[in-house]
Amino acid sequence: MADMDMKVADAPGRVAGVEWVTAPGLVAYEDALAGMETRVDGIIAGGMDERVWLLEHPPLYTAGTSADPAELLDDRFPVHATGRGGRYTYHGPGQRVAYVMLDLRGRGTDVRAYVRSLEAWVIGALAAFGITGEPRPDRIGIWVPDGNGGEAKIAAVGVRIRRWVTFHGIAINLDPDLEHFSGIVPCGISDYGVTSLARLGIGASMADLDAALAASFAEVF
Questions:
Q1: DSSP string for residues in 153-210
Q2: Per-residue pLDDT at 6 exceeds 80
Q3: Mutual orientation of helices 206-220 and 111-127 as an angle, nearest 10°?
Q4: Cβ–Cβ contacts within 10 Å for residue 70, how many?
Q5: Residues 131, 154: contact at Cβ < 8 Å?
Q6: Which of 187, 200, 212, 213 is catalytic?
Q7: pLDDT tens for residues 37-83?
Q8: CA-closest candidate to residue 95, choices 216, 215, 209
């Protein structure tokens, strides 16, 4: 697993003392899970550094531990059961996924505070593009005005923790095919839509988004 972990990623840098890696191309979900497992086990054992792993997946759906099978409306893409919290979500090209492997033993063993930090991280990155993102107490993720008087989800948050080391993380919609979300009830929420930076008229590149994520991460973590 350690060899695979190195092959799928470019040479790492560091942001706020954390190893920061961007994967080339599209990373299969199974490979991402295996890479996270290897890294988390290494962090627990004390031989590996904390890591933020930025990547894109091919089109797929994931089912969290609270997923309701009735919320899978169309299985056109592979469906992966995962140990993170939450329900169904979509990943695909044009969406920046950031898997976060941090050791909360040295950062405060407070899961709610950690989730709030993830939310603040995303909100800070969106602010770099003039987008006001907000969490909602009754709806997971980050929400933005949809331009029609309502609001839509632009980013998902899902975590798993093993012995106070974190898995999974966030997913921000830069310019994915939003129609692909129609195969699920995203995160179990049917009354609101999903959006992206591109849908909001922001012509940012993935590199632009990554730079905003790095700057916001340094401020939050």
A1: EEEEEEEEEETTEEEEEEEEESS--GGGGGGB-GGG--SSEE--TTTTT----HHHHH
A2: no
A3: 130
A4: 8
A5: yes
A6: 187
A7: 999 999 999 999 999 999 999 999 999 888 899 999 998 999 999 88
A8: 209
- Phi and psi at residue 189, to the nearest 5°: -110, 110
Cα dihedral across residues 194, 112, 91, 190: positive or negative: negative
**187 flagged as catalytic:** yes
Residues forming a β-bridge with 79 = 61
Q: Spell out the residues 6+ positions from residue 10 whose beta carbon is closer than 8 angstroms to its own.
A: 21, 22, 23, 24
- In DSSP terms, 88 is beta-bridged to 63
Residue 219, SS3? helix
Lowest mean pLDDT among 40-49, 85-94, 172-181: 85-94
